[in-house]
Specification:
Layout (H helix, E strand, L loop, with lengths): L2 E4 L3 H12 L4 E4 L15 E2 L6 H34 L7 E8 L7 H12 L6 E3 L12 E9 L2 H14 L3 E3 L4 E5 L4 E5 L2 E5 L1 E4 L15 E14 L7 E4 L16 E6 L6 E12 L6 H15 L2 E15 L5 E4 L6 E5 L5 H16 L7 H4 L9 H14 L20 E6 L2 E7 L5 E5 L10 E3 L4 E3 L6 E3 L4 E3 L18
Parallel strand pairs: 1-2, 1-11, 2-7, 4-13, 11-18
Antiparallel strand pairs: 3-6, 4-6, 5-6, 8-9, 9-10, 12-15, 12-16, 13-14, 14-15, 17-18, 19-20, 20-21, 22-23, 23-24, 24-25
This protein binds flavin-adenine dinucleotide and FE2/S2 (inorganic) cluster (FES).
């Protein structure tokens, strides 16, 4: 076996297909279904407009780095377009303009700085226009980025999976990977046995093979999305983003912004879905999902002709401290590679991973390798690095707090809460039949205490974003095993 890839999201499957088509033998292992992770929740803007903007990218990575970032994301959109065309465009790839605007009252000079920086990065066709092409909402001056794109993400990933199998690759779903041991070959401990491969790619969104090296350089944020029905044609088809600076996160410097696009509704010619995202906060550090959805809905209704709200969901993005993903050889390893740190541009970063890792694993250098190197030291992002890690350290104070409630008495069906029992902190959940389930509340990654997410009904860790489903099964790394059982010796009450 040449390459074993862990994770069947956009990053894992793109990498698998690129390698298989280059003559490598590839298998993909995933503990869920294909695209059951964040790729299922994405809003799938395909954009070379990066969340922290070119003005900041140039400061962090220099003029050459900023130029390579623009070139690599532009190339990724083109690669997705080419793949979609090969798959018969069942995923509805389309090219669109993107508009970046400032929120009311904000200084529009940020747009001038961004225009100059984007052009220096090679995006020479970006222009400043008086407003976005929206009849119901005057955005004021904004930047128009041509040649962006969008897709139906699940149909696109289904195309990747089908093409991989056709090329001879194999995908094993429902296969949890519990350990990865670097070497020649690399040994992967999976449900059902050990896999030996010349190279391994950990494409689990948040790496499950790393304790510190990468997780101190990125942070997990939850983001919220609504799907609103609008009359077809009432909103111009484009991508829209604002530069909103509302400090929605608790205790961290990242700000919440809005991202908007349209999608067709199959079988409904007269109606389209307006997909609006925002309200981000650090995972496990806010417990007000309903308020965030309400604010998102108000923001949307004030600007767009909404008929009704059809969908609400949330998901997780991994924000790297210097705004770009970590793609390449895992720090300290010889034959293990990672793709993580999507920074909200995971569809393009996942595609960049496919192109870059395929070259590196086959022993070829690549001009993007240094920019995305997971071992890079984010000197320019020292402030963000320190803020994020001080924020993590502060979470350990939860150990001395009393817990959400004294006992599980009064815990309603479908509800979870943290209890304190002696020195133990317990994650208690009462299921629909009234049965109480208890696990230790101590995250298996580095020992922070998880908290209850009442919208997703999961236990979320405020330190590095590990998440566990209501009964304690791990669903997001860096943790890679379930919440431990409650230690014996202290009788259960409730
Ligand atoms: C709400 C939302 C909106 C977004 N909008 C955009 C956007 O508009 N544009 C954009 O570019 N990006 C966007 N992103 C980011 C982008 O969607 C993600 O970065 C991307 O989908 C992640 O893909 P992935 O392959 O890295 O991870 P995933 O899709 O999460 O795949 C990882 C896989 O690894 C598997 N796995 C994990 N641990 C193990 C294990 N131990 N053993 C076996 N398998 C394991 C999981 O089951 C999962 O299937 C958005 C994200 C969210 C949540
Ligand atoms: S995710 Fe790191 S301690 Fe929980």
């Amino acid at each position: 076996m040449d390459v074993c890839i862990i994770g069947a999201g956009i990053a894992g499957l793109t990498t698998a297909l690129e390698l298989q088509r280059s003559g490598q033998s590839v298998i993909v292992l995933d503990d869920g279904p294909v695209a059951g992770g964040e790729t299922e929740r994405t809003t799938a803007h395909l954009s070379s407009v990066l969340g922290d903007r070119y003005d900041e990218l140039e400061r962090l990575h220099g003029a050459d780095g900023s130029r390579l970032a623009a070139a690599s994301h532009t190339a990724a959109i083109a690669r997705i377009e080419a793949m979609a065309t090969q798959f018969g465009n069942r995923c509805g790839f389309e090219r669109l303009d993107g508009y970046l605007f400032v929120p009311p009252g904000a200084d529009p000079s940020v747009l001038d700085r961004e225009l100059a920086a984007a052009r220096r990065a090679g995006l020479t066709r970006v222009e400043r226009v008086p407003r976005a092409p929206l009849a119901t909402f005057d955005t004021g001056p904004c930047l128009k980025f041509p040649e962006q794109g969008q897709i139906h993400p699940l149909r696109y990933v289904a195309g990747l999976a089908a093409a991989l199998k056709k090329a001879g690759g194999e995908i094993f779903t429902g296969t949890h990977v519990s350990a990865i041991e670097d070497g020649a070959p690399v040994r992967v401990q999976a449900a059902g046995g050990t896999v030996r491969a010349r190279a391994v790619v950990v494409a689990t969104n948040s790496p499950v093979n790393d304790l510190f090296a990468i997780h101190t350089k990125q942070a997990a944020y939850r983001t919220y999305v609504i799907g609103a029905r609008v009359r077809a044609g009432s909103v111009a088809r484009a991508l829209y983003w604002d530069t909103c600076e509302e400090p929605e996160s608790q205790g961290a410097s990242r700000s919440a912004y809005h991202y908007v696009r349209l999608a067709r509704i199959p079988g409904s010619a007269g109606t389209e879905l307006l997909i609006v995202g925002g309200g981000d906060h650090k995972t496990g550090q806010a417990h007000d999902a309903e308020d965030r959805f309400a604010r998102l809905e108000t923001w949307t209704r004030e600007r767009f002709p909404v008929a009704s709200i059809a969908h609400r969901w949330s998901g997780q993005v991994m924000e790297s401290v210097d705004s770009l993903a970590f793609i390449g050889r895992n720090p300290g390893n010889r034959n293990v590679y990672v793709a993580t740190g999507d920074s909200g541009n995971g569809m393009t970063h996942g595609t960049i991973a496919g192109i870059l890792l395929s070259a590196l694993i086959q022993g070829r250098d690549h001009e993007w390798a240094k920019l995305y190197d997971p071992s890079r030291v984010p000197f320019g992002a020292a402030v963000a690095f320190t803020e994020e890690n001080v924020n993590v350290a502060a979470q350990y104070a939860d150990w001395v707090t009393p817990g959400d409630r004294k006992s599980a008495r009064g815990l309603r069906r479908g509800q979870g809460a943290i209890l304190r029992r002696g020195v133990q902190k317990i994650a208690a959940y009462r299921d629909g039949a009234g049965v109480l389930h208890e696990r230790s509340a101590v995250c298996v990654h580095l020992g922070c205490l998880v908290g209850w997410n009442s919208f997703e009904k999961t236990w979320d860790c405020p330190c590095h974003g590990s998440r566990y489903e209501r009964l304690g099964r791990v669903v997001n790394g860096p943790a890679n095993s379930d919440l431990p059982p409650v230690e014996a010796g202290d009788p259960k009450k409730g």
